[in-house]
Design goal:
By secondary structure, the chain is of the alpha+beta class. It has helices at about 20-25, 90-100, 105-120, and strands spanning about 1-5, 35-40, 45-50, 55-60, 70-75, 80-85.
């Protein structure tokens, strides 16, 4: 399995580990707004936004040789961080990664807005 960046998994609700009360009160991230069909790296992807104002998910569409694969954009400070993970064609996911990595903050925010319009 390849990853484009280090992803740290946090276990927020483990019964035997103490968790700050603030973490328990934060709503779960739900990323089902959309989808918006887009082409990245000459393959089809489905773009979704989430119930927070800044997260964007890009999932390989049916028939995409990168499947199964997903990318996520998360706002960290004032800039977006791109992560990807999956087991499909490395060539297909790498081509999409190059295009996604080049997106500006304004373009990512525009995609978030487009997913909200597509989901209506």
């Amino acid at each position: 399995m390849r990853k484009y960046s280090l992803v740290v998994a946090l276990v927020l609700a483990a019964p035997c580990s103490p968790v700050p009360s603030q973490a328990l009160t934060q709503p779960a991230l739900n990323c089902d707004v959309g989808p918006l069909g887009k082409t990245f790296g000459q393959t089809q992807w489905l773009v979704y936004s989430c119930n927070d104002p800044s997260t964007l998910i890009v999932v390989s569409a049916q028939g995409n040789p990168a499947s199964p694969f997903y990318f996520s954009f998360s706002l960290e400070g004032s800039s977006y961080h791109l992560r990807g993970e999956g087991t499909g064609s490395k060539q297909a996911s790498d081509a999409a990664y190059v295009e996604l990595q080049a997106l500006t903050t304004a373009a990512i925010r525009g995609l978030i807005e487009q997913t909200r319009q597509a989901g209506k």
